[in-house]
Design brief:
The complex is a heterodimer of chains A (138) and B (133). Chain A is α/β, with parallel strands linked by helices and 138 residues long. Chain A has a domain of 82 residues: Nucleotidyltransferase, domain 5 (2-Layer Sandwich). In chain A, 33% of the residues lie in helices and 23% in strands. In chain B, strands 2-7-6-3-4-5 form a six-stranded mixed beta sheet. Chain B starts with a helix and ends with a strand. The chains are: A alpha/beta (138), B alpha/beta (133).
Chain lengths: 138, 133
């Protein structure tokens, strides 16, 4: 005759249902999980009223051509070199705090939104912070 | 001498699946911790990439600009006039508007819509971007 202790020692927990559930969870998370780091960035845009020249603050208008190229005073320059170009041409500092200088980024007809953001990134990397998106008419 | 298969047979039931369960558990924990579950969007948009840092998106009023230039509010396509009246309506309730635009959207079109949002009195204008690696 078996004692109660002998009976319990023969009972084993089946792992199969656990594995099933874990596999289903794994497949679920593999399918729905997204690794794209989505971020919300703040954009500064002109209101589109009036002309840029009417602004009292010192400002420059830059055209974004695309493929990392910008146009300043009708000359094509890489967007990352815009700060250097303006500073040497105008003999001013774009990052001085007492007299902030604003750069207006204007897209051309061929420019995509990605080109505009890349230009903002390039300008930001070169230390320029005061950048506003402007339309063709503003 | 025992063969490898004989040795496996000698293991108690379920014990030979333990390494598999361990790996599956580790993978499950990895996906649960590192990934982010986001609801699938009905309008397919490839958001532009940017090196700028920003906040993680939450549910807010979102305007979608599709690659073909279509403007969507939720899932319904609208024109510029409808967008303008919508923006005027929500301007008092919400100060923040999120724009989800495809990276290939024409720059002048995107700027015109962003300017419209700005003109309608929304203080904060935010664009959904993908982190550039």
């Amino acid at each position: 005759m078996r004692t109660p202790r002998q009976q319990t020692s023969s009972v084993s927990i089946g792992l199969t249902p656990l594995i099933d559930v874990v596999f289903i969870l794994l497949i679920f998370f593999m399918l729905v999980t997204n690794f794209d780091g989505l971020r919300l960035i703040d954009l500064s845009v002109t209101s589109g009223k009036g002309k840029i020249s009417a602004v009292k603050q010192k400002s420059f208008s830059i055209e974004v051509v695309g493929n990392g190229q910008c146009r300043f005073a009708k000359n094509a320059v890489p967007c990352r070199d815009v700060r250097k170009t303006i500073e040497s041409a105008e003999n001013i500092s774009l990052i001085q705090t007492d007299k902030p200088v604003t750069l207006y980024l204007k897209p051309t007809e061929e420019t995509s939104l990605q080109d505009l953001l890349s230009a903002i990134d390039d300008l930001s990397a070169s230390g320029v912070r005061n950048v506003l998106l402007a339309g063709g008419k503003s | 001498m025992k063969s490898p298969s004989q040795r496996d047979d000698d293991l108690p039931e379920g014990e030979n699946t333990l390494p598999l369960i361990n790996i599956v558990f580790l993978m499950l924990i990895f996906f649960m911790i590192t990934g982010r579950i986001i609801p699938s969007e009905e309008i397919d948009v490839t958001v532009p990439s940017s090196r700028q840092t920003g906040d993680i998106p939450e549910d807010r009023s979102t305007i979608t600009l599709a690659p073909d230039g279509g403007i969507y509010l939720g899932t319904s396509q609208i024109d510029m006039e409808t967008l303008k009246s919508y923006l005027d309506t929500v301007a008092e309730e919400e100060s923040e508007i999120t724009v989800r635009a495809d990276g290939s959207v024409s720059g002048p079109t995107a700027v015109a819509i962003l300017q419209m949002v700005r003109k309608s009195g929304h203080k904060k204008l935010r664009l959904l971007t993908r982190e550039e690696r």
